[in-house]
Specification:
With 338 residues, the chain is an alpha/beta fold. Helix content is 34%, strand content 23%. Strands 1, 2, 3, 4, 5, 6, 7, 8, 11, 12 and 13 form an eleven-stranded mixed beta sheet that branches.
């Protein structure tokens, strides 16, 4: 890693806090102050912040001055992306729980308290997602769990009203814009895949958690208000390239072989039809790079060496076969991981 830790207020002589909150910033000056203010107002206080800055034009180090919680700040000389930044934060995390929080996500006062309480009550769950509301219109759902179509498309559920039952809502995976992970399990699985840079890196991690037999769920009363896309303002071509490339990598790296035999050709056909309907140079570039490194990601399929492993049936229960669910951004959750 080409970065330097500029400041650390974490006291080595003290026990590690229960939660390490990781924020990866990149030109996030417009949203990060409000994000940090929301952290300062948390009712749960046993946490530290690890802030990794990805070579922003204006480093945010001044924004952490005087914060009422321990802070470790590291400035990278290169943009590591969200995935690489999260791995750097995880390397500095000594806590049992690692919380990922986007700099454009504003947590409710009891956000951490709700996530930690759920983690203590549900040891079967490895990743806990949040109820994400649109920061500009809290009546609009920004995301409720990550969901996955058998042909390789992932989406955040946005079409159902906010649930009234606060029991964990089990789903395929969780969005890392605001999530809590059991740090030891994430380390066991190798962390986030830095090759993804950003987009689909949390989907890939959720897939690996599911493959290893772990559960993922959203905690409905753990609420954040999310702006979304703040670090990619005016960079839609880059986002289009990364999403297209990373979706292919996620599919061939994780989909069980019996399903991949169908899913891979279907993904390719969908992309070809999409390009015929509307040509996008950035998408074609994403496909080219994705396909070029296919052997590398096929080899990565065998790198999941854990004591637990989900069966084909157990895993496929969490993958949708309904294209309508993707187009409607339907929320696909269950009350328990059956």
């Amino acid at each position: 890693m080409s970065s330097e830790t500029l400041r650390s207020e974490t006291q080595n002589s003290k026990p590690a806090p229960r939660v390490c909150v990781a924020i990866i910033s990149y030109n996030s000056g417009a949203t990060l102050p409000r994000c940090l203010d929301a952290l300062a107002a948390q009712t749960f206080r046993d946490f530290e912040l690890v802030l990794i800055d990805n070579a922003s034009a204006e480093p945010p180090d001044a924004l952490i001055e005087g914060r009422p919680f321990p802070v470790t700040y590291a400035a990278s000389k290169d943009n590591l992306g969200f995935a690489g930044g999260m791995n750097e934060a995880m390397a500095r995390c000594k806590s049992p729980y690692l919380a990922a929080l986007n700099p454009d996500a504003y947590a409710a006062r009891d956000w951490l308290a709700k996530l930690v309480a759920a983690a203590e009550q549900h040891p079967d769950i490895a990743a806990f997602g949040s109820l994400q509301l649109n920061a500009n219109d809290e009546a609009q759902l920004d995301g409720f769990g990550d969901h996955y179509l058998v042909t390789g498309q992932a989406w955040r559920g946005t079409t159902c009203p906010a649930p009234t039952d606060n029991a964990p809502a089990y789903c395929f995976g969780v969005c890392a814009a605001a999530a809590l992970y059991r740090a030891d399990i994430v380390r066991e699985l190798g962390g986030f895949d830095a090759r993804f840079f950003c987009f689909y890196e949390d989907v890939d991690l959720s897939f690996r958690l599911r493959r290893a037999g772990h559960a993922c769920a959203v905690i409905p009363d753990a609420i954040v208000h999310h702006v979304g896309g703040a670090s990619f303002e005016g960079k839609s071509e880059l986002a289009d390239f990364l999403i297209t490339r990373n979706a292919w990598w996620t599919l061939i790296k994780n989909m069980p072989w019996p399903a991949l035999i169908f899913a891979a050709p279907a993904y390719i056909a969908i992309q070809v039809l999409s390009l015929i309907k509307r040509y996008r140079r950035s998408r074609l570039k994403g496909l080219r790079e994705g396909f070029a490194r296919t052997p590398e990601f096929l080899r990565a399929r065998g790198n999941l060496d854990t004591p637990r492993r989900a069966s084909f049936i157990q895993l496929m229960r969490w993958i949708s076969f309904r294209p309508s669910a993707f187009f409607e951004r339907r929320t696909l959750t269950r009350p328990q991981d059956q």
